[in-house]
Amino acid sequence: MSQLSATERTLLPSLAVVASLFSVNVGAAFAKDIFPQVGIEGVTALRVGISAVVLLALWRPWDVRLARRDLVSLLIYGATLGLMNLSIYHAFARIPLGIALAIEVVGPLAVVLLTSRRLQDFVWTALAIVGLYLLLVPEEGVPPLDPWGIMFAASAGACWAFYIVFGKRVSSAMAGGKAVALGMVIAAVITVPLGAATSGAAMLQGRVLLIGLLVALLSSAVPYTLEMQALRRLSSRVFGILVSSAPAIAALAGFLVLGEKLAIAQWVAISIVILASAGATATAAKRAA
Prior knowledge:
The chain has helices spanning 3-33, 35-59, 68-92, 97-104, 106-115, 119-136, 147-173, 176-199, 206-231, 236-242, 246-258, 264-288. The protein is an all-alpha fold. The protein has one domain (3-288). α1 (3-33) runs antiparallel to α9 (206-231). It is found in: Membrane. Keywords: Membrane, Transmembrane, Transmembrane helix. It holds the Pfam family EamA. Its main location: membrane.
């Protein structure tokens, strides 16, 4: 197999995943900034609702025809998108972005462990778990994490695992962009009525709508499209290991946009997670060559 083919199969989809993670976490930092104005449900509704409109206009999935099994996968995929967004925003409101993503990444790691048969993958996954453990162990003088924040982050992690599994199935049944558009519509059906009921007219303020549009593009429309394209070329196992770098990217976004500071030990743990992700990517590329 040629080197060019190996690059197309692993490196480019991997870069798409990394780009999606940067985009989604910068968007999350902007979203957290308007939590006090419209509430968590309101921000989620803006993000998902605007994303659904943008993606429908971009991909126009009107001609999609699905078998019953694929339709069920699409419904689960869309529902997990909505619940994942809602859960992680509740976590962001209570604990730092990097810590929340470190807990959420348990979902993708579970996919890795359940689908892997190679020793190398277990080694990289174990290293990522070590980084996760160090992130969660409270350092002396550091306040303990909000238990509700931990619970919501763990719930988002479970949704993330379903997103990977069913997103892979949906991406095999239709074009990736159309799958994301339809999934986002399903997510909007869940989150927009909830946001409207809890936030009301506050969601229609000019500044809020502008930030909502920015968040929708950065946190949903762009990253989910990139991820769906990557899922068409990467296995669920490789994708799951790649996204283990999310806590590092989230911590950086939280620091740059919100001024969230983590302890030195937590940054060391984040570096370990980055190493695990880089090692997994290099191993996957070597296999494909």
